[in-house]
Design goal:
heterodimer; A: alpha/beta; Aldehyde Dehydrogenase, Chain A, domain 1; 20 strands; about 40% helix; B: six-stranded mixed sheet; 15 helices; 15 strands; about 15% strand; globular; disordered C terminus
């Protein structure tokens, strides 16, 4: 048992529980980032809220006070000033898949996420503050019926590929006046902890802090799952990463526990024939594609992995696609490093896939690699069979005679679709929405930071993966009182 | 190199396929160190021949800058990954573009497959039949990853391949299939092009003494078209568009039958085994099947009070797979032995991509014969030293390959013992009983990301198939 490995406490309800002699488990982290934590089996009652009456403090608190707290918290989440975040940054760097400048960019976005106006707009646009702060009567003649959004007990099994998930989850928990337990991922074991510890420093007795617990346990720990996933202890589960995180707990799910599965996504881009008609258009499209493929080094669900281009499959047309591919590869190094960088480690599995088809000239054209990025051009209308392994800025370009055909490859796993040029959007939008696509974003403009901004900047309170998590994670309660006396008299008279 | 040939006049680098002609015993008297040069000479000959006649190797060698092989190290960049045997686009199978598929396969073999008569061929099964007629012996994987891989073997290799199987059986069970014909039972399909089924058909029927002595659970084949399209058919069915795939109606019926058969399989195996217990009571038999099949049958037989009594000299030939079996007994072999009343359990270590079988010895290790050059790699794909015992990813050069390139890197993690000190008395490098899948990633098994990955998909497939 070495003592110099990272100690990751359980943070529960304003308390920091450090590993101790008789209360300690070591875990193998990613990239050698091993860590020790208190034994979660001994802390079930610190993690869950068995008695719902204890949510009263949060329920009674005005949303304005919660927003004020989040805003104050955000001001303390600057990486340069916050030692907890610095520690989690170092671990995420070692364990996760993001290069230093990108990770820094992600962390730099944290304070803005907590900013008062932003969170206020988020809660107002989704649930509506008055529904959280009190009972809201219906319109006459149903003004005897009132509705309130009441907080719940939530388990969040979070994703670690992009650390903003930790911040997002804490904000959503607070805005739903809910008790939240975050099970951290092994590829980002510390960001949620760092934010929780900062919250304790700010005000350990604040109801939002009292209703937050953060712990790590190994996925598939049946004891933990059986103890936690009970209708008496949890109302809502949000599982990022889909099956891999859900499959362990699914046997404990029962009616009464509402599961939101933010399942794994494959995203794509749709490129109209116009993009191949001039050198200028091709350059613009290639840069847009490079941004949507390359941002966060293709570790996110919104990253394009397949680019469908309106094109024939004769040699001349394929040559055009090869040109487009070369322009995409040439654009990667021009992306600002806060968006995308060359990676340090090759992806051996993907390289083996590329190697296996590199000589299949009849079917594919392969350029580039998994370090600086690459393209695989299909010479016929189908994606590569290993499309689900595309990463490290390697993208598959697939010719299709009409973009409308692409709906057959779309379903609930198709999250974000990049579109170029804008002229094709309107004829595609509804069909793709019906097929399961959750978001269509622009690729035009020619300026990487602007394109990145355009595809990410959303007004507060927008849906996430086709659902509205805040509305879904509260309990909508009805208070139905006797109808007003005049209505009653009228109906009796009519009889 | 010539020295080795002179020392061992029966082992010529020109013909590794004949090295077993005097049986396995002389080979297990040889230290691998004694045959190293001979193996290298054979590998060099193989490379010289195939680097101009197997298009896939030619291209790979050019890309890797390998123009000659003077050492084992020279040939390491030329190991085919399993993906090479399935580098065709899946769309070719979906659209049943058999000509293109045939042209693709042609790049893996010295045979000129453009001469294969493909007139009227619209199905994968038909194509593989025509290839058989042409003199090929193509075996494919079971398609559990959603795509079949095709190993381009041919009749040219058949005698050596069969000899390797028979000598392997003789080494691990003491029963010589050339001279000692035994009623044989296998709880599965009777043939087909899936590699394991193809091998069993090719080897078991003569070893049993003819088709009437080879008894299988099912009389039919498993359709290669079905295996290759299973995943897509499922997806189409989910969308209610199975009819629109334009598949042959017989294929749709075959699928329904297979699903029904799959649901009945456990009962079918049971009743089949139990009938066999009665019919062949007191007779000498050879039983096949996976560990899982044998254990399940034994458990259910015990529960029903059924007990086989086979004749003396009966034996079991079994292989990997506890699939679908919950809590196998710790000493499963003892359990199976006791139940079936059969003392001898023979086993090989092998895979579709290698012809040389590695039979299991009395110490439960798998000894590699000289016509296979074994290699182990670490996680960074560095060759592990050939000394002591080493654990890593298993790769090999199959020197028996005469019409295709035999270099292959597997997905298995094994331990090889290079010091030839096995208590069984056989020499040669040997593989320990612990054989697992090689995982490239180290670390927590619950890394969670929102981006779709193959891993996530596989988890999902396991989940829906109830294995998770």
């Amino acid at each position: 048992m070495s003592n110099d490995i990272l100690q990751i406490p359980i943070v529960a309800r304003g308390r920091i529980i450090l590993p101790a002699e008789d209360d300690r488990v070591e875990y193998k982290g990613r990239g050698g980032a091993d860590f020790a934590s208190p034994d979660p089996h001994q802390h079930i009652h610190d993690l869950v809220l068995g008695n719902t009456a204890l949510l009263a403090d949060l329920n009674d608190m005005r949303m304005a006070a919660i927003i004020e707290f989040l805003d104050a918290l955000g001001k303390r989440l600057w990486l340069d000033d916050n030692p907890w975040l610095q520690q989690s940054f170092d671990v995420a760097l070692k364990a996760g898949g993001l290069a230093e400048p990108i990770l820094r960019g992600v962390y730099d976005g944290l304070p803005g996420m907590f900013e008062g106006d932003a969170v206020a707009a988020q809660v107002e646009k989704t649930i509506g503050v008055r529904y959280l702060d009190g009972w809201v009567p219906g319109d006459a003649p149903y003004d005897n019926v009132r509705v309130r959004a009441v907080g719940t007990r939530q388990l969040h099994i979070t994703a670690g590929n992009v650390p903003v998930v930790a911040g997002l989850t804490i904000i959503r928990g607070a805005l739903t006046k809910s008790d939240i337990l975050i099970k951290t991922p092994s590829n980002d074991p510390l960001t949620a902890n760092a934010i929780a510890r900062t919250m304790i420093e700010l005000d350990a007795s604040h109801p939002v802090v009292k209703h937050l617990a953060v712990a790590y346990w190994k996925g598939g720990d049946e004891f933990m799952d059986s103890q936690i996933v009970r209708t008496s202890r949890i109302d809502k589960i949000t599982a990022w990463g889909g099956m891999s995180s859900v499959k362990h707990i699914q046997k404990f799910l029962s009616p009464g526990i509402d599961l939101t599965a933010l399942n794994p996504k494959y995203s794509m881009s749709l490129i109209g024939a116009e993009a191949l008609e001039s050198e200028t258009a091709m350059d613009e499209a290639a840069l847009g594609i490079a941004v949507i493929v390359g941002f966060y080094n293709q570790t996110a669900c919104a990253n394009t992995r397949i680019v469908y281009v309106e094109s024939e499959t004769d040699d001349q047309s394929i040559d055009k696609l090869v040109q487009l591919g070369r322009k995409i590869i040439a654009a990667y190094p021009k992306l600002p490093e806060v968006i995308s960088t060359a990676v340090e480690m090759p992806n051996k599995d993907l390289e083996a896939e590329m190697d296996a088809i590199v000589d299949e000239d009849d079917f594919y054209h392969v350029e580039g690699d998994t370090l600086t990025g690459g393209v695989v051009i299909s010479k016929f209308s189908d994606r590569v069979d290993f499309y689900d392994k595309l990463s490290n800025r390697v993208v598959n370009i697939v010719p299709v005679s009409r973009l409308e055909e692409v709906v057959k490859w779309c379903d609930d796993t198709t999250q974000t679709v990049g579109v170029y040029p804008e002229a094709v959007r309107d004829r595609l939008l509804d069909g793709f929405a019906l097929a399961g696509v959750q978001r269509m974003v622009p690729l035009a403009g020619g300026d990487p930071l602007q394109i990145f901004h355009d595809m990410h900047q959303l007004p507060p309170g927008m849906p996430h993966d086709g659902i509205e998590p805040l509305r879904r994670n509260v309990r909508w309660v009805i208070d139905q009182r006797p109808a007003a006396a005049h209505d009653l008299a009228l109906s009796i008279a009519a009889e | 190199m010539t020295e080795a040939v002179l020392e061992k006049p029966t082992l010529s680098p020109e013909a590794p396929g004949k090295w077993l002609d005097r049986g396995y015993e002389p080979l297990y008297e040889l230290s691998w160190r004694e045959v190293e040069e001979l193996q290298l000479a054979a590998l060099k000959l193989q490379f010289d021949k195939f680097s101009t006649s197997v298009a896939a190797l030619e291209k790979l060698a050019r890309r890797e800058g390998v123009s000659r092989v003077d050492s084992l190290e020279d040939a390491l960049p030329l190991l085919f990954d399993h993906r090479v045997y399935k580098s065709y686009p899946l769309a070719l199978i979906e659209k049943r573009d058999i000509r293109k598929l045939n042209a693709w396969l042609g790049r893996l073999t010295t045979h000129d497959l453009s001469q294969v008569d493909l007139d009227g061929v619209t199905m994968v099964d038909q194509w593989l039949d025509r290839l058989d007629d042409f003199g090929m012996l193509i075996g494919h994987s079971s398609g559990t990853t959603g795509k079949l891989s095709f190993v381009p073997r041919s009749q040219v290799e058949f005698p050596a391949w069969q000899r390797s199987y028979y000598e392997g059986q003789r080494a691990t069970t003491g029963v010589d299939p050339y001279t000692d014909k035994v009623e044989t039972f296998f709880p599965g399909y009777r043939g087909g092009h899936q590699m394991m089924m193809k091998m069993l058909g090719l080897f078991n029927i003569p070893a049993a003494g003819g088709p009437e002595h080879y008894h299988t659970l099912y009389s039919g084949h498993i359709s290669s078209d079905l295996l290759s399209l299973a995943a897509r058919m499922q997806a189409a069915e989910d969308r209610g568009e199975l009819e629109q795939l334009g598949l042959d109606p017989s294929l749709l019926k075959a699928r329904d039958d297979l699903i029904a058969q799959g649901k009945r399989r456990e009962q079918d195996i049971e009743s089949w085994f139990f009938t066999l217990f009665e019919e062949f009571r007191g007779q000498r038999v050879k039983l096949g099947g996976s560990f899982g099949d044998l254990i399940k049958t034994a458990r259910s037989g015990i529960a029903k009070g059924l007990k086989p009594e086979f004749g003396a000299g009966s034996f079991i030939m079994t292989g990997g797979g506890m699939k679908g079996l919950k809590d196998p007994p710790a000493d499963w072999e003892g359990f199976v032995r006791d139940y079936f009343g059969i003392e001898t359990i023979g086993m090989f270590y092998g895979m579709s991509e290698v012809m040389g079988m590695s039979p299991r010895c009395s110490q439960e290790h798998f000894h590699i014969m000289p016509h296979t050059i074994p290699l182990l790699f670490d996680r960074d794909m560095k060759l592990l030293p050939r000394k002591g015992s080493q654990t890593g990813r298993y790769a090999f050069f199959d020197l028996m390959a005469e019409t295709y390139w035999g270099g292959f890197i597997s997905g298995d993690q094994v331990t090889i013992y290079w010091e030839e000190d096995c208590a069984c008395g056989w020499k040669g490098p040997r593989i320990g009983p612990e054989i697992t899948r090689f995982h490239e990633m180290e670390g927590g098994d619950d890394k969670i990301t929102c981006a779709g990955t193959a891993e996530a998909y596989n988890d999902f497939m396991q989940f829906v198939s109830g294995d998770a």
